[in-house]
Design brief:
The complex is a heterotrimer. Chain B is of the alpha/beta class. Helix content of chain B is 35%, strand content 15%. Chain B has helices spanning 3-9, 34-40, 54-62, 78-87, 98-107; strands at 13-14, 27-30, 45-49, 67-70, 90-93. By secondary structure, chain C is of the alpha+beta class. Chain C has helices spanning 3-9, 14-29, 32-35, 49-59, 78-86, 94-97, 111-120, 141-167, 169-172, 196-207, 212-232, 262-266, 275-279, 287-294, 326-331; strands spanning 63-68, 71-77, 99-100, 105-106, 125-129, 135-140, 180-186, 237-243, 247-254, 297-303, 307-315. Classes of the chains: A alpha/beta, B alpha/beta, C alpha+beta.
Chain lengths: 118, 123, 332
């Protein structure tokens, strides 16, 4: 399942500049709002689901080499955050749906979780 | 789904014996930001969270949450456990992460019990 | 009218349903010693089965512990007596017919342990021993049922009485305008205790007869305000809730440091909280927004160096006014 298919299936809105989304194949999913959890738990190339729109999420995603961040509940990052995401090559996607529903739908699409425990 | 069935579904461990196992759960909500939970969660939901401090139980109590699941096998602080025991709110530990738990519960038919933060009132 | 007779007339309510499952909680809370029979008839091992027969008949019991030198040595039951009668052997010693090494239970164990033992065995009673292995009582299935029912009744009655008393407060005390003022001191940085005041206010509102929706709205708003005092103040602050039949007015105030830009503080997502606070799940810049959504009116006043005063009000519509019967009085 590539990122373009996920964007279509979940009706996500890209916030960062357009890319060849079909070239990205998320390895797994991860959901959390605490940056310390993400730092310790999210695997490389994960797709990260959170309602945090705070600027720090870009640094975390870039550091961990995540495929994309889905920001839920229509939370909107500041312009500076989106600019920083474009500079760092982090893909930001937005949805009005909740973390619970988005993670649930990704799970239904067959995306699984890869961490030390699962 | 009631608390007892929930515990089985997620390979969970019920941490406080005072919890009412028959309490019905109407849906789910996954979040680590308590203000967001307070803003959007509807009554009788199960709250999935990676936070383990007593504020999780306080938040649950204020927002009429039916049960709390601590993700990734987290063990709560003693104060958290004592508060859950006192307030009779089920505190469950599950080995799965938030993502997998949302997936499993969503697949089991639980709807999302959060409303858009833009809706006018909080009840 | 007493609250109990009133509740008996009503059909099954949610409150009643909650009481049923409270049984399960009580099974863990109650100790064996609280429900066991303490006034014991014991028998000596060298007494005769004739003595046992007479004791059973006189005391109207169907079994008794057998004790020698203060220690439990066996259990003699009606079944043992019937076996003995069939053999016409009433002159025999009790020690010939009793069950030796009977299964016992500890007085400090929760009642659920006794339930488990009854379920796992076919026995009708267990002797109860204290921590020095001395016999202190006996427990039967009947003791369990009676003990749990009594505790349940007590519990239920207590909360009902509290609720009843509180909900009539505004009717029983007459004045031109009555209000109940609750004050809570909030300590700076006390994350562990954070929310305790909100929890008490929510409970007070429910006891005063507020609807669950009103109690939930007030609870959420006060909780956010309480966390703000804990996170952002210099010396903590005070929460003051003034409850009247038609409105709830809540103030959260402190003596510093004050908010620089009140409009900016009100913007969703704006926060001055540091990363440590964020990792505790707070400081997402949603607190004030949240409060605004839960209350009917809100005013935030702040002076740098002096302090902040957050005033919140919830108005109760006619049919939801606080206090039982108060609304009807007003309308008639």
């Amino acid at each position: 399942m590539n990122l373009q298919q996920i964007i279509d299936a979940l009706e996500l809105t890209p916030l960062t500049e357009a890319k060849e989304f079909s070239a990205f194949e998320p390895s797994c999913g991860y959901a959390a709002d605490l940056l310390s959890c993400v730092m310790s738990g999210a695997a490389r190339h994960s797709i990260w689901v959170t309602l945090q729109a705070h600027g720090n999420i870009i640094a975390v995603a870039s550091l961990l080499d995540l495929s994309a961040i889905i920001i839920t509940e229509g939370a909107s990052p500041e312009d500076a955050t989106i600019t920083k995401a474009n500079e760092e090559g982090v893909i930001l996607l937005s949805t009005k749906k909740t973390t619970f529903e988005i993670a649930g739908k990704l799970w239904e699409l067959g995306i699984r979780c890869k961490s030390s425990l699962e | 789904m009631n608390v007892k069935e929930l515990v089985t579904l997620i390979d969970g461990t019920l941490l406080n014996p005072s919890a009412n196992l028959m309490r019905e759960i109407r849906g789910g909500c996954g979040a680590d930001l308590m203000s967001d939970v307070l803003a959007s969660i509807q009554p009788e939901a199960v709250l999935l969270t990676g936070l383990c401090n007593p504020q999780v139980v306080r938040t649950a109590q204020m927002a009429d949450v039916a049960a709390i699941i601590l993700v990734r096998g987290k063990v709560p602080a003693r104060e958290t456990l004592e508060l859950a025991e006192k307030e009779h709110i089920a505190l469950i530990s599950s080995p799965f992460g938030m993502f997998a738990l949302c997936g499993k519960l969503y697949q089991a038919g639980l709807p999302s019990l959060e409303r858009s933060v833009n809706s006018p009132a909080c009840d | 009218m007493s609250p109990v007779s009133e509740s008996q007339k009503k059909p099954m309510t949610d409150q009643d349903a909650e009481n049923i499952t409270r049984t399960e909680e009580l099974a863990y809370e109650l100790k064996v010693e609280e429900v066991m029979t303490k006034d014991l008839k014991t028998l000596a091992p060298d007494a005769t089965m004739q003595d046992a027969l007479e004791a059973f008949r006189e005391e109207r019991i169907s079994g008794a512990p057998v004790v020698a030198k203060g220690k439990l040595v066996g259990l003699i039951s009606m079944e043992d007596l019937i076996r003995c009668l069939r053999l016409n052997d009433l002159a025999a010693s009790i020690s010939d017919y009793m069950t030796t090494n009977p299964q016992s239970i500890r007085s400090k164990d929760p009642v659920v342990e006794a339930l488990k033992q009854f379920a796992a065995t076919h026995y009708g009673r267990f002797p109860v021993l204290d921590e020095h292995d001395s016999l202190v009582g006996i427990i039967t299935k009947g003791d369990l049922t009676r003990g749990i029912l009594a505790a349940l009744q007590h519990d239920y009655h207590e909360e009902e009485v509290r609720r009843y008393r509180a909900s009539h407060l505004f009717e029983d005390i007459e004045s031109d305008r009555s209000s109940l003022i609750l004050r809570y001191n909030i300590k700076k940085g006390d994350f562990v205790l954070g929310g305790a005041a909100s929890s008490k206010i929510k409970r007070a509102l429910l006891r005063l007869g507020a609807t669950p929706q009103i109690a939930r709205r007030a609870g959420i708003a006060v909780y956010e305000a309480e966390m703000n005092l804990i996170i952002h103040t210099t010396n903590g602050g005070v929460i003051r809730a003034e409850i009247e039949p038609h409105q709830i007015a809540i103030n959260a105030y402190d003596d510093g440091p004050g908010i620089e830009d009140v409009d900016l503080a009100m913007r969703p997502g704006f926060s001055t909280a540091d990363d440590d606070v964020r990792e505790l799940g707070f400081g997402a810049g949603m607190g004030l927004v949240n409060i605004q959504r839960c209350v009917d009116s809100m005013r935030l006043e702040s002076i740098i160096g002096k302090g902040t005063n957050l005033k919140m009000k919830i108005f109760l519509p006619n049919q939801e006014v606080m206090g039982e019967g108060f609304g009807q009085n007003k309308e008639s």
